[in-house]
Amino acid sequence: MQFPLLSKSSKLQKLVLKATEKGTDDVHIDDLPGGAKGFEICAKFCYGMVVTLSPHNVVAARCAAEYLGMTEDMDKGNLIFKIEVFINSSILRSWKDSIIVLLSTKALLPWSEELKVVGRCIDAIASKTSVDPDLIGEALKAYAVRWLPDSYDALVADDYMRRNQCLVETIIWLLPSDKSSGCSCRFLLKLLKVAILVGSGDHVKEELMRRISFQLHKASVKDLLLPAASPSEGMHDVRLVHNLVQRFVARTALSHNGDFVEKSDEKMIELNFEQESTLALGELVDGYLSEVAADPDLEFSTFVELATAVPEAARPVHDGLYYAVDAYIKVCSMHLMNLNLLNGCCQYFLLYDE
């Protein structure tokens, strides 16, 4: 009499045959993907018991069934076939279920990737990103928190760097098409930081920078402390921040084109918003300059370019800028001992005071 498990699993048949040849009844399975949960589903199916598949267990079941070789060659309507029908007809039709399944695939790499569960879920989510950009943004944020390592060492470790690069690029291309909603500026800047650290391509960083430029005024100084691409450029990528500021200022200028003659309520609300965002930008840049001033490798020209990138209206008072220049002068005097540079700082400080 053949056990139901053996009739549906080519893997178990091979293991039993091997054990018989060795004169033992023991069969060991130590590397089953999906663990006990996956095996339980496979066993219940083989014995004709009710099997309930859900977004939370379907990946474990699919990987376990693949490992056990539960194919159509073994038995028509076998478990792999049943699971694939469930994934295609149920999971992939719901973006919420697709996200749940996608989150569960991490624990079952590389099986889940080789079985194209990851790719199919990503495609399904991407096709539905027009549903609600805010919901999609929250889902992607949860996905990033679950998948991307928190520590620098884990992020750039040789064994995982390529995988982390793929993950962050996948998240970026799944971002809602509406660049002004769906994801916070903090989240976008975090993705940019990760993209820099794992060596993502320029096109990936460009996409993030375009999105960030729509809401840069909502960032914090800590959010902007992006690592420099090379140690020779200092601790922080000040030029990249300068680029973001330029984009934000240019977009703001284009949005009203300097023409607010019309005194409608909508125009006045728009004007007030632009004023508030411009003031927030000035405060942000001055706070950032104060923070990066401690970097002895920060060039004076780079410091000045960023300081002057914001419009005059962004600084009704100059206290923040004074503090930043003062901090930079102290670093220059302690680390560089360059009188010409010190004079340049002082002259700039005096000119701006006028």
UniProtKB/TrEMBL annotation:
Keywords: Ubl conjugation pathway. Pathway: Protein modification; protein ubiquitination. InterPro entries: NPH3/RPT2-like, NPH3_dom, SKP1/BTB/POZ_sf. The keyword Translocase does not apply. Residues 102-354 form the NPH3 domain. Belongs to the NPH3 family. This is NPH3 domain-containing protein. It comes from Aegilops tauschii subsp. strangulata (Goatgrass).
